[in-house]
User: Fold these one by one.
Assistant:
Number 1:
Amino acid sequence: MIEALSKKEIPEASMTQSTDRLRQSNRGAIHVDKVSVEFKRNGQAFSALAPVDLNVEAGAFVSFLGPSGCGKTTLLNVISGMLRPTTGSVQIDDTPVTRPIPLCNVVFQQHSLFPWMKVIDNVAFGPQQLGDGDPEGTARTFLSLVGLDKFATLYPAQLSGGMQQRVAIARALATYPPVLLMDEPFGALDAQTRTIMQEELLKIWANFSTTVIFVTHDIDEAIYLSDRIVVMRTAPGSVKEVIDVPIPRPRTPKIMQSEVFSRIRLRVIDLIREETLKIFNSTER
Amino acid sequence: MMNLTGTIGGGGRQGWIAAVVGLAGTTVIWIFASYALFVVTWNIAAGVLDNPVLLPSAGLTLDAAAQLISSGILLSDVLASLKRVVLGFAMAASIAIPLAMLMAFFSTLRRLTMPIVQLLRPIPPIAWIPLAVLWFGIGDPPSYFITAIAAFFPIFLNAFEGGISVEKRHIHAAQFLGAGRRAMIMKIIVPSSMPYIWTGVIVGLGQSWMAVVTAELIAAQSGLGYMIQNSRINLETANVLVGMITIGLLGSLMVAGLRYLERYVLPWKATQ
Ligand SMILES: Nc1ncnc2c1ncn2[C@@H]1O[C@H](COP(=O)(O)OP(=O)(O)OP(=O)(O)O)[C@@H](O)[C@H]1O
Ligand SMILES: [Mg+2]
């Protein structure tokens, strides 16, 4: 299953991901270099991202926090290649990202599973495209990883929101992307499911070399999951502060009671508050 | 899961017939009641008019039908019409669907050809008959042309709608998963457009069936349209009615058949 991907049929874009795999953290370094994004709004240029510089080391789990509208999704879209920045560039390892390529994958709040494919075919699609010798087998492995092997022959619409998100994660991981971008992936789930999904995500991530960028509004979630937290400045978006989370792994929800955790939480709340107030003050005038 | 077995496994024989007649949820009994009401109204009208040339009774019409069936005339006309519909429809679909997909994804082609499509679309199939006769004479070929024209626009416009409504997030997801051009078309774009294409196919087949009768009234010497026209000239009104009812029955059967097939063509829709 794993060796299969390294055969020569693999398209050029995925060559770099083919050789090193599980438990190796030498793929998936992200370099964001002076990226800015301008949107046209009613004919006027609107700056959504000021030049952003950001380096994420291979294998890190990094969260983006910031008030609504500060540009988290925009930055994620640039990193994934779905949006061309107005200036600047993005590299994953040594490959410039100018369009969506298999070096990375994304999981959104609203899943992007293919409704016309059964769950198993959704997960097998990537491995099949990238020349895996046994896409079905790989898909089954990943489905059991997220505990959904029994639902393989259903269509996405027949699953609950939480299950759909798990399939989306399985599908994204099944091609072993060096980078996984997640934009509020658990935003639509209830608190209980959400907690369980967070634990599951950490378990799965521990087995992969994948670099994760995780966007959320939930400060506890961000601290619990991440190695580092990027708090964003707003209007236009940029990096305000990067905070390390020096809590050892494996982590359990218990760490939320620890002193380090509360200290980081207070710091993050302060920073976000500053930015949120900025929006309020600017609209009042 | 419940829903899946409910729609696909359940239903049984009655469900199947109801689906075929195209009245989902209606029992066979209701269909019979509806037809009985139709026949009673018809017979009352025939009794009031009391003139079999203007309106023969249901009984007379049934006699005519029996004769047309036993002589084999009805069957040969039905087959002639069906052949024209199937061929014209197939030609239309095989051009309309790929063209619509190309136009949905290549903006230059779209800009260049969409105005032509918009210009031709409002022209009813019947208006093409003079050209069809000039170009193809009398018989099968002009009828193929007319049925194809009639089916083309509903199929094309729906397929195009499907093509432009393919979601960006699905295209991107496929790119992240390493999809090549071929897989992108065959496994993402086409299935994503399929619900629209299928609607176009159902509407197109109905249009095509209506158009074949029109074409045969003028441009053919066989088929249900020809039979109706010929019977009118001979004042055999009962035969006209047999022809009309056959057209209605076959038309609704065809559409109902396609609606029944839908669960196989769009299996993921059947589960919702
Ligand atoms: N396609 C677009 N056209 C114009 N403006 C846009 C577009 N996409 C985003 N924006 C603007 O760019 C800014 C950043 O948006 P973005 O979606 O990145 O914010 P966000 O941090 O993800 O917010 P949220 O937390 O609410 O998801 C917002 O002001 C938004 O209105
Ligand atoms: Mg967002």
Number 2:
Amino acid sequence: MPKKPTPKPRFVFTEADKKRRKNIFIQLYRFIVLGLHFWKLSRMSH
Amino acid sequence: MAKIVIVGAGFAGHYAALVGADALKRKGQHEITVISRVPKFTYIPSLVWVGVAQMEAEETQFDLKPVYDKMKINYIHGTVTEVHPDEQYVVAELPNGEKQQVDYDFVLIATGPYLNFAATPGLGPENGYTQSICTPPHATKAASEYLELVKRLEKGDKAKIVIGTGHGLATCQGAAFEYICNVHNDLVDRGLRDKVEIMWLSNEPRLGDFGIDGLEAKMGSLIYTSEMMAEALFDEYDIKWEIRSHVRKVEDGKIYTVNLDGEEKEFDFDFAMLIPPFKAQPIKWIDKDGNDITEKMCNPAGFVKVDANYGKPYEELDGPDWPKKYQNPIYKNVFAAGIAFAPPGPLSQPGKAPDGTPIGPTPPRTGYTAELSGKAAILNIIDMIEGKEPSHTASMAETPGLCVASMKNHWITGEAATIAIYPVARNYEKYPEYGRDLDLCVAEIGLAGSWFKALLHYAFLYKLQAKPGWKLIP
Ligand SMILES: Cc1cc2nc3c(=O)[nH]c(=O)nc-3n(C[C@H](O)[C@H](O)[C@H](O)COP(=O)(O)OP(=O)(O)OC[C@H]3O[C@@H](n4cnc5c(N)ncnc54)[C@H](O)[C@@H]3O)c2cc1C
């Protein structure tokens, strides 16, 4: 079976990452993008 | 007229009943009967919030009978104890203790898991010392124990919390992950987090494995893994972790473990929520001569065998080995879906401690996977009623895993990990490098996920009550 990548070095969320996670405008945009992605994937399986 | 019996009314059985009733509407006088031990449907994913006292168990439930009356589905409140596949009937034990024989032409077993607390001495809320969030009563009890702990913390006490899996072969790590994050954030909001040490204890071979062999997603030109995400998050939340571990026993305030390296450890706790291992519901399969053929029909854990390739070692298992039609190979009119079907093997790397104790997650099946398998099974039954070969497939190696892991439930300050993988079971034959199509895989933490999670709660409860337009909701 093919090998999977080993995650190195250790990943850390930056302050920018943390702000982005809570920024309402970015998150509204991500809500639409991720929503469309979920919709597409669910259509592939029904 | 064909008689279809569906045993169990969770994600797999209940959705199959709705899809089947809808598909059979214009196809003559066929009959669907659902037999369920519990007269309510429970939206299990929201039990995580019940367990931190942020939602009442009743808000996750609705009565099945009115929905079935509306959809012209027969309903029997009872527990199936036997299936007689030669004579084509099941035996249901009714709440008053009477037994009822229910005849079928086709049967779909969708009974979900039996929570096997007895596999670990001292595990569980009934005969042990740990909590569970797997059923509404368990989650309600977990919430009241948690609130007791909060009271003690408010008085100035310090405490240790352990959350994760309670056995080397447990599954459902995702639910425990949601719970640990919600507990952390709830304690932060109450201003009590600095009084508590929180530890993640699990049987995962790597952090972020979640029983699905982890996941990879693209982030620009980088490949980002669930291990990286979980490590970074636990660092941020100051949650310690102890993985690759089997819980040998639990005593009042103490958990005893052994890990893959053979190290035996002890952990103190004031509050622990550990997911038990699953086995199948105790249903006997009996042939026309009265012989017990359960071993022939089911795997050792009691899950019903379907059209999978069983018996391959983990290293050789690949996408095509996963079941597609959910049909039993011996009795073609028997189907099994959701957690009730026997998977061909684990998704995550299995391991053994030096003393032979198996440690490695058994394969989870999410609510979405349960629905898809239930839908494929019922549509295949309808194919057979119409004299056709079953044509509907929903292999876990060809369908996506869509999951939103709640971390904090709030419209403004909430957070959740939005996770999409395609397919759920790695399919190296189709995607040689990772076994998955990384262009379709997503793992992202943010407020948007929290909105999704809340929306899914209402959307599923709406859809599964067959309210107007329910078929439009995937
Ligand atoms: C706390 C928690 C959180 C979760 N969160 C998520 C999530 O966020 N997303 C997700 O996709 N999945 C989640 N899951 C997993 C999801 O709940 C399961 O995959 C799903 O419930 C499986 O559906 P099922 O129909 O196979 O079984 P179940 O939902 O367990 O349904 C089985 C049904 O069969 C009935 N039954 C059992 N035995 C008998 C019998 N002998 N006779 C008659 N009836 C019987 C039961 O009463 C029940 O109604 C979570 C699980 C837990 C425990």
